[in-house]
Design goal:
Radius of gyration: 17 Å
Largest sheet: 2 strands, antiparallel
Shape: globular
Strand order of the largest sheet: 1-2
Low-confidence stretches: 6-12
Structural class: mainly alpha
Number of helices: 9
Order of helices and strands: HEEHHHEHHEHHH
Helix content: 40-55%
Length: 213
């Protein structure tokens, strides 16, 4: 079962030995993972192209450390011009929650990629570019940043993560408020041991596909 820890006010940024160890972990694991997963990337790219027309890689414009914007790389999981497939009710749900339970825009291969978060693997390149970390708060758009209110400053002190507390605590089943709370808990209470714990918990979370859509 997922859990949502209570906020414990400690510190508001990752510094010192924790930052050094985190950086070494990021670059080492990201590079090794890209080398090992390259054959899988090629296979997935083939099925994406076969499933629907369009590019293999989708670029999502998001906000990173220091509120700097960058393109987060993802494997494409939607039809081109997929918004035309949405009903007015689905558009309202998307505006409110940021996600749809049964999204008609998602391709057949996209459903599988999202279930096991395989669509996010290209973000290993973002890690090597220094834009993301393996573990951190969720990456968000400029518009989503407004929902963090007084927590915006804390969020901008760290890099968004490929995985994080939200990933091992319910993923899309969490309310938006719970996701914000988890991000703030991570930023204020970070240690390298917390990173390792999240990293090890991510594997079973991805294998079960719980809370992903």
């Amino acid at each position: 079962e997922g859990f949502v820890p209570l906020l414990v006010l400690n510190k508001t940024r990752i510094t010192g030995i924790h930052l050094i160890t985190k950086t070494v972990l990021d670059y080492t694991l990201a590079f090794a993972s890209l080398v090992v997963l390259m054959p899988l990337f090629l296979v997935i790219a083939y099925f994406i192209k076969r499933d629907s027309p369009g590019p293999v890689i989708y670029r999502r414009r998001v906000v990173g450390q220091g509120r700097r914007e960058f393109d987060a790389f993802k494997l494409r999981t939607m039809h081109l011009q997929g918004d035309k497939l949405l009903t007015s009710e689905q558009r309202r749900e998307l505006e409110t929650y940021g996600k749809l339970k049964d999204d008609p825009r998602v391709t057949k291969i996209g459903v599988l990629l999202r279930k096991y978060s395989l669509d996010e693997l290209p973000q290993l390149v973002n890690v090597l570019r220094g834009e993301m970390s393996l573990i951190g708060p969720r990456m968000i758009t400029r518009k989503e940043l407004e929902k963090f209110g007084k927590w915006q400053h804390n969020l901008s002190t760290v890099k968004p993560g490929l995985t994080g507390l939200w990933q091992v605590s319910g993923r899309s089943d969490l309310s938006y408020e719970d996701r914000v709370r988890l991000d703030m808990h991570y930023i204020r209470n970070h240690t390298i041991w917390l990173d390792l714990q999240i990293l090890f918990q991510t594997i079973p979370a991805l294998l079960t596909g719980r809370g992903a859509y």
